[in-house]
Amino acid sequence: MFSDERAGDYLSNQYKYVEYFTNWRHNGLIEKKALELHEKYNFKYIIATSESDIERAAQLREYLNIDGQNVESAIAFRNKVVMKDILLKAGIRVPKYKKVENPLDLVGFVKENGYPIILKPINGAGAEETFLIQNENSLEDALKNTGFREFEVEEFIEGDVYHIDGIWDGNDFLFVVASKYINSLINFRDDSIIGSFILPEGNLSEQLIRYTKEVLIALPTNSTIGFHCELFLTPKKEIVLCEIASRVGGAKVVKMIESMYGFNLQEKTLHSQINKYFDIQKTIKNKRNYEIVGFLLLLSREGFLVDIPRKLPSKKIIEYNLNLKNNRQYNSPKRVIDSIASVVLYGDNEEEFLKEIKEIKNYFENMTLWKEG
Amino acid sequence: MFSDERAGDYLSNQYKYVEYFTNWRHNGLIEKKALELHEKYNFKYIIATSESDIERAAQLREYLNIDGQNVESAIAFRNKVVMKDILLKAGIRVPKYKKVENPLDLVGFVKENGYPIILKPINGAGAEETFLIQNENSLEDALKNTGFREFEVEEFIEGDVYHIDGIWDGNDFLFVVASKYINSLINFRDDSIIGSFILPEGNLSEQLIRYTKEVLIALPTNSTIGFHCELFLTPKKEIVLCEIASRVGGAKVVKMIESMYGFNLQEKTLHSQINKYFDIQKTIKNKRNYEIVGFLLLLSREGFLVDIPRKLPSKKIIEYNLNLKNNRQYNSPKRVIDSIASVVLYGDNEEEFLKEIKEIKNYFENMTLWKEG
Lengths: 373, 373
Hints:
The structure is a homodimer of 373-residue chains.
Chain A: E1 2-3, E2 20-21, H1 29-41, H2 54-64, H3 71-78, H4 80-89, E3 97-100, H5 103-113, E4 117-121, E5 131-133, H6 136-146, E6 151-155, E7 160-168, E8 173-181, E9 193-198, H7 203-218, E10 225-233, E11 239-245, H8 253-261, H9 265-274, H10 280-283, E12 292-299, E13 303-307, E14 317-322, E15 329-330, E16 339-347, H11 350-367, E17 369-371
Helix pairs in contact in A: 2-3, 3-4
């Protein structure tokens, strides 16, 4: 079962039964159809790879009494307030936070904590509808727009942002790797790129992984999951949770890891989930192919795309993909994955790698032509 | 503070300070402004007369530590699941019901209880977005449209619908009267009218009022409230709750009661709320002016309104109001109060009164001209 946005992907060649649905995120006919198909096919597993399907898949599993992540676990990884309630109780450092169910909750949080603060949908994904509130003006914008849906507000944590990706079997990592974002996700609308790169092995990487392990031990998991954990490192070198999801990282995380280690993290996660005798350690090497591998997303903006470079002037490119629309009409990015192009590349050391990224960014900005409207 | 839909009402002549807001139901700037105005005016009371403001007013009261209905009480009267949880525990007959947070909750309820069922927003008002689900087709329509917002589903109760209106001081009625709807609210979209009339004093009226008293005793109330309670009377003469609200009845309920008793229920409710020494019994007579008083709403439909009668051929009319739009372009009614005209009228007995209503309905339908589009 797929969103109709994927109707052009010829998926029926790859699956026994394919059906497309409009309005995927809010269409309850998907659940109804899943129950009907279960009558016929008797599903053994229900797999969700997208953040917004995590809870729905868990609800279906419980309804049909099927193994895999249950609703309690799904909610702990999806609901940013439940998540932090659990971690706070486990003594893990999280930002000051509060559930926002009405405007007074938000105004009260500002009164107690001042600016800046971050306001997020309580179960959003991809930094969609995430507001950085820095002053009374942006507070009023948020109050006007967020209505009475459930949000979470938290203090703004200064520092670099890292992401830890891997597979967790409920007790330990089956695989884990730490990476660093090249800019802050919260400000992604202000820059033309986002991206990250895998950290060299060493102290910092180990610290981040140790913190992530504490988080995963504290949260309820009744099955093997892929995970994507985002952490702040403050100027005082304190690690603070941003958030954690029970699915494989999006954007080009999978391709980045594949380039570095030679295996597909999404595929290995699925195998670990559907076969309890699957021994991932025997199928992958933890040996790295490069010193550094990273990716860049080149973000869309509002307007008509006139021209975009077909090649980039760098010898370190592993993959360069264009994400072009037929009508070439784009909007400013709503989610971090709304990109017009992506690059996966390697480097020999961090300094040289970051220089390379800057050059690619400048080249791309200069060579990409937009027309207003 | 008012919705900008009322900007034409010259309210600034009637109040010391008037401000209008767009997007009233979802605009958090209203709360922020209320806090700022409190700094200046030091509010003694916060009054909400509209169903959708009940919780917001209670939240503001608690935030500002002001007397009046608190959040616990507001939620019990607003959230149809919390309401029924409390009443069920108190041993009061309510329909079978279930909270719907995702499509499986709804499908599961159908599997257990079959059709027909009623699906309502968990805190809706005016029968907005209320679905009567009679078969798999209408189930699929609902699943497609209701998404993952919170709903309540309940069994469909066969029978006549009554409404009990009055003022409750937390322990007893300050005023109470029972009325009967002339048709079922749930089907209001299928008929061209809705309406109700005050029941004659007697057995049925007393039974309905006694049931309502049990409901009001069971629900938390920390202050004097106006209330509007809707009850089913089944063919087996069993009384079952439809729902209850902690505000004065809408449509023409206030005008109907005023015609019958000579006082304004909204005004007396306010006085009871803001003055604990106010003795309503001394300011009203419970003596009735007529045998029967009732009201009719003549509902809008989709199209351009060409002509509508300016007078009705009946000698029993107390009030006939047109609710005309400047552009005369109407939609089919979304809420029960989306009417193009209203009538308040009296009668000498029920039979004659219902005949009169039927004649008015026919006359109105014949004399009102619509053009498509």
